[in-house]
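Morning!

This is the sequence you dropped in the shared folder:
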Amino acid sequence: MTTSNNWAIIRQATNALQKNKVTAQDQTILANIKVGPQFHTGHGQSLALNPKNDQLWFVQNPGIAGGYTTVQRLSKSTLKPCTTLHFRLRSNHHNQVTMGNNLTFDRSGYAYFSSYVSGTHQFKIYQGVLSTHQTKFKLILQGLANRPSTKNQSVDYNPANNRLYFISDDSISSVPVAKLGHLKSTDVLATKFNSGREFEGLSFDQTGHGYLLTNKGAEILTSKF
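The structure's back. Tokens below.
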């Protein structure tokens, strides 16, 4: 039987391994953890399921300074690429746009990614279509004046309340999808935590329960209502 204390010991052991401070007890615990083979991938937080067509996508390479972006559709059984798309994003004024290292889909199948505005605290949101037939994104002409925190970790969608969630270290903000482009300050919800850990990603089930992936140490936390 696995208890919360057992999970804490496992988390502490993996954290000690990362910091090269492994004790004899940590070595015993780590010896019983099976680790799969290494494989080349992109930003793991961009792995997202499109609930409209049940396709799994992720950003293999976001491109640099407006260069070509590589996005792949993965097999759900093998996690190997079955479709690879290469494209460049440009604004209406032909300015270069770099795709973010994050990706999510709403229940209607629309794709979203987010990016920070360099040198400011501002935050941009992009909405579009990502498929083997069409790839097109548009900038939502209203972002956030204050981004969640310093690291743009991931963007996620809650089907139970139809909101987008923007994840940063120790900070989460959210906005309603139905009001994108005409948000009021009261529509924006933000929570600041004090865990001292990296928040990597957030996922929701159909009932709205959240699953937060943290790092240093690695752990999945579930929400309570």
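Headline: The first strand starts at residue 48 and ends at 50.

More detail when I'm at my desk.
O.
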